[in-house]
Amino acid sequence: MREITVTKAEAGQRFDRFLSKYMPGAASGFLHKMLRKKNIKLNGKKAEGNEKVREGDTIQIFFSEDTFRKFTGEKESGAAPAGKGEKAGSVPPKKREENKLRSQVRLLYSSEDTLLFHKPAGMLTQKAAKEDDSLNDYLLDYCREKGIIRAGAPSGFRPSVANRLDRNTSGIVLCGITTAGLQRLALLLRNRNLEKYYLCIVQGVMKKDRKIKGYLKKDEERNVVTLLQRPEEGAEAVETWYQVLDTSSHATLLKVRLITGKSHQIRAHLASEGHPVLGDYKYGDRKANDALKRMTGISYQMLHSYELKMPGKNGIHIIDPPPEDFCRAMEACGLHLKDGSRSEKKQKVQRSRKDRSRNRNGNMDIPGASGLRSRRNDKLHKSAIPG
Predict the structure, then answer these.
(1) Residue whose C-alpha is closest to residue 63's, from 148, 13, 4, 1
(2) In whole angstroms, what is the distance from residue 71 CA to residue 219 CA?
(3) Fold annotation for 2-72
(4) SS3 label, residue 281
(5) How far apart, in whole angstroms, are the C-alpha atoms of residue 163 and residue 161?
(6) Residues 281-297: pLDDT tens digits?
(7) Which fold has domain 99-191?
(8) How many whole angstroms separate alpha carbon 133 and alpha carbon 127?
(9) Taking Cα atoms as reference points, which of 62, 43, 70, 46 lies closest to residue 2?
(10) In this structure, are residues 176 and 188 in contact, taking their beta carbons and an 8 Å threshold?
């Protein structure tokens, strides 16, 4: 027999759902049968499964140890042998890259129910394949280390990310570390009560703040979306608001608010307006992206989840300053973030030199950008991103 005590993180969910998470290898019908036969009890009494479990509740499970391990995925004590072909102490290249990305994750905010992390570009929010590492895996390791969930034992609740960013989009990701926290975040996202703002660098000059609308249709097989002007079967209405923060001769820095939040919405919507996000090879301009890559080494979209406002009496306002790559791309494009962040301060020392170069249309790899030195010969040289 096993006796489990419900933790704060696990409280607030239906008993049958708790059991399904605690024993993912057991079928729902089997668990309900065990409840009827009193092989599973709640606080020593027969339960139906629709009860809400509370912190401190005790659950008795009358299974053999082998059956319990089979349903929970627990392994017998003892270290697992090294994988085939792995040498002791060796770190495969994939693992080195995962460790590098994990070292860039930062905790931005914490409460009893939620955590907000900075996700670096290159890291998945959630696994795409079993062998993948992701921010969600980082979250679980963090919660085990901090004692938020049981380490090395099954649990009736798994902390989880509440929103997703594309692999190569950096910035704020919300995570629920209790049932109540995850439910609250899900409700805020579903009702669009969270204000989420992104920074992006787009090709071309945009002068006016706008709210743009359209209909987004996704091709699941190709993982690409299309923006339509009129409704169509399978297409969802989308709205994107943007504010112009700065412009150069051939690029614009935008602050974008997602009114709706669909897959690839910002990238596809701005591309449909003729102003694709720089570095975006899926929806953007290859020639422009190649020019950015030559100058900076950056080969992914310049899109960053920058600011979050959460309503309520204890509402929060979080700003995640753009990472080094994004700042380097802004410098290359002659753009400045005038939002009061530390990135603005970092650029002050370079601003007068850039402004002088812009006034005389100086040599640059990206029209409107100046002062960025070539990676090849440490001298400024001419090359252009099409406007």
Answers:
(1) 1
(2) 37
(3) 3.10.290
(4) coil
(5) 6
(6) 999 999 999 999 999 99
(7) Pseudouridine synthase (3.30.2350)
(8) 6
(9) 62
(10) no
